[in-house]
Specification:
Length: 285
């Protein structure tokens, strides 16, 4: 199951997985765009086994519905939390959360928690989170998570990406303590040419050029594919190795000390349970 599968990294990941014989659940907000992406993949891979699952990451109710649909599958082996939003003006989710916090962290937290029982039954099950180099600048505003007092689109993005790594860190600890078979991994695409830059105004037109210098969308998908299918160490972080992590082949990546803070990770878990209403059922490690 790949969230945000109709474009960018999610599309490239879905295409490669389908070409290798996987059944891919393409979880997307827009059905027309999802169906167009499915048709495009089938042009290259006629034998593709693809299915659309509607999900709006800015609506926790939609995440719950998507989890129910995915749980009806015969089995679920891998969940790739790929969908995200970057640098929008101040907006809020359906439940009233700051958009980047809600889409990039709270919805993946809820979706992951809801699908843990199904994943535990899968074949060599794995959960992947797409983070970002920007996590290194993250410093979660615990007393202002909904940006009621201040809003910087770049800071809130960095905070949400730090949250991805903290969530994965705490999830890994709890899964290992519970004896779960589920493997976790995080990744980042470096500087890849995708439509994640759609809120950057005229700057977004430079991203195709940047893709030539750093990573195309296809190359940006390599870390996700490694995290989802490679021989990896559970709990590790993967990303490009060239030019300070902005491009090139994928391997173990450098992450900030803050992303390995056990107290912050536990605090984030508790806050996320409260905000989403989803209790994953994993006791503290």
């Amino acid at each position: 199951m790949v969230t945000g599968a109709n474009t960018g990294l999610g599309f490239e990941v879905s295409k490669v997985l389908a070409s290798r014989g996987a059944r891919v659940l393409m979880a997307c907000r827009n059905q027309a765009k999802a169906e167009a992406a499915i048709d495009q993949i089938r042009e290259d891979v006629p034998s593709s086994d693809l299915a659309f699952i509607p999900i709006d990451m800015a609506d926790l109710d939609s995440a719950r519905e998507a989890a129910l649909v995915a749980a009806q599958e015969p089995r679920l082996d891998v969940l790739i939390n790929n969908a995200g939003v970057m640098f929008p003006p101040l907006e809020h989710t359906k439940q009233g959360f700051e958009l980047q916090w809600g889409v990039n962290h709270l919805a993946p937290f809820a979706l992951t928690g809801l699908l843990l029982p199904k994943l535990a039954e899968g074949h060599r099950p794995r959960i992947v989170f797409t983070a970002s180099l920007a996590h290194r600048r993250g410093n979660i505003a615990w007393d202002d998570l909904n940006a009621e007092n201040s809003y910087s689109r770049t800071k809130r993005y960095s905070d949400s990406k730090l949250a991805n790594l903290l969530h994965a860190f705490e999830l890994e600890r709890r899964l290992r303590a519970s004896g779960s078979p589920i493997v976790t991994a995080t990744c980042h695409p470096g500087f890849a040419s995708t439509d994640l830059a759609r809120h950057l105004g005229a700057v977004k037109f430079l991203f195709p050029i940047a893709g030539m210098l750093f990573n195309s969308a296809e190359q940006g998908a390599w870390p996700t594919l490694q995290a989802a299918t490679g021989e990896i160490e559970s709990g590790e972080y993967y990303g490009p190795q060239r030019l300070f992590g902005t491009g090139g082949v994928s391997d173990v990546a450098r992450r900030s000390k803050a992303s390995r803070d056990p107290q912050a990770a536990c605090r984030l878990w508790e806050v996320s349970v409260h905000m989403t209403g989803v209790e994953p059922g994993l006791p503290p490690a």
